[in-house]
Design goal:
This protein has about 100 residues and is an all-alpha fold. The protein has a single domain, classed as DNA polymerase, domain 1 (Orthogonal Bundle). It is built from 6 helices and no strands. The radius of gyration is 12 Å and the shape is globular. It starts with 8 loop residues before the first helix and ends with a helix. The mean pLDDT is about 90.
Length: about 100
């Protein structure tokens, strides 16, 4: 198992708190979209690959995809935002 880099640890812990049973497929792209504006592409891909067990390069492609999607599922993103807020998202944003 690859060790998560120290600078990504708070993000990893946030995702683990929000998704103790793992990130569900229906939450995966909205989560990438929500975190996209807060992180670099590669850092986001690295932490999400670690959390999901997906290949880093496949996640990186998904990150690139969500960055170019014009019509986003705003309802799913808003719902996920509320869930993350209950798991420490505001504190994470303040870091």
């Amino acid at each position: 198992m690859k060790v998560i880099e120290n600078y990504l640890l708070s993000t990893y812990k946030l995702i683990e708190r929000a998704f103790p049973d793992g990130v569900k497929e229906e939450d995966y792209l909205p989560l990438l979209t929500l975190l996209y504006d807060e992180m670099s592409d590669r850092n986001l891909a690295e932490v999400m690959a670690h959390c999901t067990g997906k290949d880093y390069y496949l996640v990186l492609n998904d990150v690139y995809a969500v960055s170019s999607i014009v019509a986003r599922d705003t309802e799913a993103i808003a719902k996920l935002n509320e869930h993350l807020l209950s798991c420490g998202y505001a504190e994470w944003l303040a870091e």
